[in-house]
Amino acid sequence: MNTTPTAHPMVAPAADLSVLLIGLLKGVLYRDGDERQWAALLNLQARVRDYVAVLNLDLVLDEAEGYAFLKSRPEPADDDSSPCLPRLVARRPLSFAVSLLLALLRKKLAEFDAGGGDTRLVLSRDDIVELVRVFLPDGPNEAKLIDQIETTINKVAELGFLQKLKPAGGAAVGPATFEVRRILKAFVDAQWLAEFDTRLATYQSQLAGVSNTKEGAGHE
């Protein structure tokens, strides 16, 4: 009698599937963050899509940019008889400051890609501060303004669109630098940017009006 144990080829894929699903439910999967998991996702993406569809989620997979994440499916239209299911991935409202920085980083990324060359956009803290400060009203307290911008930078990093890099050369400390994560392209598309440009123009007009009012009052 042949007593050789029977191989179970589905054990490893099943384990990989569980690890993949747990990881995706927790956050974004990057190719450069875990190449083994990325390879498993490419092999098992059909099963991942089928599984998350039960949870009213879609898998967003960008092989060229090297990232994958889950997002809620669009809500049914008013004339659609499909049931409106609860959202597993909650929507998070963004402050104007965070929206502004995301839009500016998205534009910077588009300009960077148009120039060719390196695939990683790395900006210093001072670079990001200068991107934002030209859109904010001047105030008497420069340090407070910088602190507000740094708070916004940290919030964008928490959302996963910026990654703080370690100091170069193994130094314990050094100037703060951030990589703009390319997943930002999936969240901020051309239409969003166009709409934000309109809101930004309105915001700048309001700032100009406030500034002119202050100047006029100062001359009375």
Brief summary:
By secondary structure, the chain is mainly alpha-helical. The protein has seven helices and six strands, in the order H-E-H-E-E-H-E-H-H-E-E-H-H.
How do the strands and helices of this protein lay out in sequence?
Layout: H1 11-26, E1 29-30, H2 35-54, E2 57-62, E3 67-72, H3 96-114, E4 122-124, H4 125-133, H5 142-158, E5 162-164, E6 177-180, H6 184-187, H7 190-218
Antiparallel strand pairs: 1-3, 2-3, 4-6, 5-6
Commentary on this structure:
This protein is mainly alpha-helical and 220 residues long. The chain has helices spanning 11-26, 35-54, 96-114, 125-133, 142-158, 184-187, 190-218; strands at residues 29-30, 57-62, 67-72, 122-124, 162-164, 177-180. The strands form 2 sheets. It has a 3-stranded antiparallel β-sheet with strand order 1-3-2, covered by helices on one side. Strands 4-6-5 form a 3-stranded antiparallel β-sheet. The radius of gyration is 23 Å and the shape is globular. It starts with 10 loop residues before the first helix and ends with a helix. 16% of the residues are buried. Residues 1-12 and 84-88 have low confidence and may be disordered.
